[in-house]
Specification:
single chain; alpha/beta; Rossmann fold; seven-stranded parallel sheet; 14 helices; globular
Length: 384
């Protein structure tokens, strides 16, 4: 058995200072130790997939991070592991607990995942080893992980068995209090018309985002492809998978790089898929994150099947989640207003209704995802 301090301080020596995750009783000592230490940071995500995407965003901002989860949460993390970290080649450390470990009595819901945890990681091409249970084994394990991540630029996992880490008391349960933030919702609405198209909006966003000071993250589907078709800049990231993770990815980058303005261009289908991240953004993000939701009430790139967004007040959700400002409407002025906000003490949210459809002969980016990412990292002087 080891102490939480033994591992976390060894990891700190290698630059790991931010942890994201969803709790598991096996992980309690780690989480408590990180929360107790003001020089470390723990981001409590609403699900494991968002935690992994937030870690990815932090890493591309130049800040090494560790994501922690129970093995049951691997199911929630499959999409960002396979279509975000794998495709974009983003290295980070995964600590996954081994509930349902064969031969160890556990709850029935852990039985199957306990049997297939390593096989699932292998299938997703994430190499793994058993988490060290002796202090002398910690540094060698971390160095093996670092060697792989440096060479392959992909994640590495440590599988933690029951009883590996000694208990650690929680002394410093401090969380941002966002309940006192100014939360009025500003509406810019034209009741007679709703024919604003995505292309016009994206052109307006580009005009408001100078390349030197902002990063644009466009959600998967038509949004990223249209942004690319208008202008391909070094400060653009086009999400090609991990649907719903653009906002959590942007959160990690915004936390790692408070000197930059991070603009997430989301969609209604994607936002609905991982709406829990609204609460994480509201609690942890600063005013350098602008979250723009372009809502056409359909899954446009798959045949325009309806989403349920017609019945959802996203601005109200953002307000309740702790965003510093929320602006909604169906006029282009919503975008200008978002970028004119000066005094907010938290993230800014914009909900803009647009019409469905896209431009003719819509292209796909002709540069690979990992090249797009490294181009952006070079632009902001970040490295793994």
């Amino acid at each position: 058995m080891i102490e939480a301090k033994d591992f976390i301080e060894a990891a700190r020596e290698l630059g790991f200072v931010r942890y994201t995750g969803v709790p598991c009783s096996f992980l309690t000592p780690f989480i408590n130790y990180v929360i107790n230490d003001d020089s470390l940071e723990y981001i409590a995500s609403s699900n494991e997939g968002d935690a992994l995407a937030t870690t990815s965003g932090s890493v591309i901002g130049g800040q090494r991070s560790i994501v922690m989860m129970q093995n049951s949460g691997l199911g929630n993390a499959v999409s960002p592991i396979t279509s975000l970290s794998y495709v974009f080649r983003i290295p980070f450390l995964i600590i996954v607990t081994h509930r349902g470990q064969p031969g160890i009595k556990d709850e029935p819901q852990h039985e199957l995942m306990g049997k297939i945890t390593k096989d699932l990681l292998d299938t997703m091409k994430v190499p793994s080893e058993v988490f060290p249970n002796e202090k002398e084994a910690i540094i060698p394990a971390l160095k093996r992980a670092e060697k792989y991540m440096t060479k392959e630029q992909r994640p590495y996992a440590l599988i933690m068995n029951k009883g590996t880490v000694a208990p650690e008391k929680l002394h410093n349960q401090v969380l941002n209090d966002v309940t006192k933030r100014k939360k009025e919702i500003q509406s810019i609405l034209d009741v007679k018309s709703n024919n604003l198209n995505r292309n016009t909006v994206l052109n307006c966003i580009i005009k408001n985002t100078p390349k030197e000071k902002t990063i644009l993250i466009a959600t998967t589907g038509y949004t990223g492809r249209e942004l690319f078709s208008i202008e391909d800049r070094d400060n653009h990231i086009y999400m090609v998978g991990s649907m719903g993770c653009a906002s959590s990815f942007g959160l990690g980058l915004a936390l790692a790089r408070p000197d930059l303005k991070i603009v997430v261009i989301d969609g209604d289908g994607a936002a609905l898929m991982r709406m829990g991240n609204f609460t994480t953004i509201g609690t942890y993000a600063g005013n350098n994150l602008i979250h723009i939701l372009l809502d056409n009430e359909v899954h446009d790139s798959t045949g325009a099947q309806s989403t349920v967004s017609k019945n959802v007040n996203f601005a109200m959700i953002a307000k309740a989640s702790g965003y510093g400002a929320a602006i909604c409407g169906n006029k282009l002025e919503v975008i200008d207003e978002l970028f004119s906000q000066k005094e907010n003490d938290g993230p800014i949210f914009g909900h803009l209704k647009i019409c469905s459809g896209t431009i003719e002969n819509l292209p796909r980016p002709n540069i690979s995802p990992d090249q797009i990412l490294r181009r952006m990292m070079q632009h902001i002087n970040a490295s793994f």
